[in-house]
Amino acid sequence: MRIATFNVEWFTHLFDDDNQLLLDDSWSSRYDVSKRQQTEALAHVFNAMDADAILVVEAPDQNSRRATVPALEHFAETFNLRARNAIIGFSNDTQQEIALLYDPDVLTAKHDPISAPDAPRFDQSFDIDLDVDEQADTVVFSKPPLELALTTKAGVGFRLIGAHLKSKAPHGARNRDEVMRISIANRRKQLAQAVWLRRRIVNHLQNGESLIVAGDLNDGPGLDEYEDLFGRSSVEIVLGEEGSDCLHDPHARAALGRRLAAQPTTSRFYIEKEKRYLQALLDYIMVSADLRAKQPSWRIWHPFDDRACWRDTALREALLTASDHFPVTMDIDI
């Protein structure tokens, strides 16, 4: 089975209010890329991946006028994708949903949110002391993680949590001091969300459940100047310490183990002020110990770092056009 995670930059802007694709030459929300070009590039990438299940981060919007599932299923039908059924959990108001596209001939998927005394349901609130002042702060998810119970056609069950943890930009800051204050507060909230997610992970692992945590954890080793202030990134919190109740992702472990050496990357952003590209490791597929024992194989579909992607000119160009993130896949015998 092949499982993927793919952050599609502003996927929602490729659809109209009837959840139909806008296959025209108007501009998409990607720089110098039309809606038609982005959509066709995405179709090329999805077909090349040929995954049984794809966690779509920044999926089309869910609101009173638009719906994520019909939009994704229309996309899959239009381009004859094998992963043609879609499912979401709790919607959000950011126009960036978390959804799963999957092949119904291979597995079934059910939205199955969990609540525990130390980790409430992800559409609720979580109390934690963020600044060690002995006063609990209330945290909510702007993008509640997607909790799914998956079952293969062979009857094998496992859990999937899809997440998009992101520290907001310091909007409204008027000077450098305010930028720092707001940035630190936002990063603190993101780490609190990671603790919340980590507690859910521990619940599943202690119940002996097979677990995959996938998606975009928008911080990690060496990503910004506030990392040293907090000591640990959200990636490290979600993974857990090596040993009991930890998850594994080879790219995350490699990056954490060699901070001054070359690291794997899953995204590429242009920095206008510096006239250069920034690459970062943001996208992960983390697995529990029992799934790791099956010796899965991970791959980052990076157009410059993956030899097969580089040598396939059409795929290379599609990856660069489709999004500012690149897919991550994991092949596993399950």
Proportion of strand residues: 15-25%
Largest beta sheet: strand ordering: 3-4-2-1-15-14
Bin the helical content.
25-40%
Under CATH at level 1, the class stands as Alpha Beta
Shape estimate: globular
| Alpha-beta classification | alpha+beta
State the CATH architecture.
Answer: 4-Layer Sandwich
As residue ranges, the low-confidence spans are none
Condensed summary:
The protein has 334 residues and is of the alpha+beta class.
Account of the protein in words:
The chain has helices at residues 35-49, 68-78, 176-206, 227-230, 234-239, 250-257, 289-292, 307-311, 313-322; strands spanning 2-7, 53-59, 85-88, 97-102, 107-111, 125-128, 137-140, 146-152, 157-165, 211-217, 267-271, 276-280, 283-287, 297-300, 328-331. The chain is α+β, with helices and mostly antiparallel strands and 334 residues long. It has a single domain (2-331), classed as Endonuclease/exonuclease/phosphatase (Deoxyribonuclease I, Chain A, 4-Layer Sandwich). Strands 3-4-2-1-15-14 form a 6-stranded mixed β-sheet, with helices on one face. β9, α3 (176-206) and β10 form a beta-alpha-beta unit. α1 crosses α9. It starts with a strand and ends with a strand.
Search tags:
single chain; 334 residues; alpha+beta; Deoxyribonuclease I, Chain A; 5-stranded mixed sheet; 9 helices; 15 strands
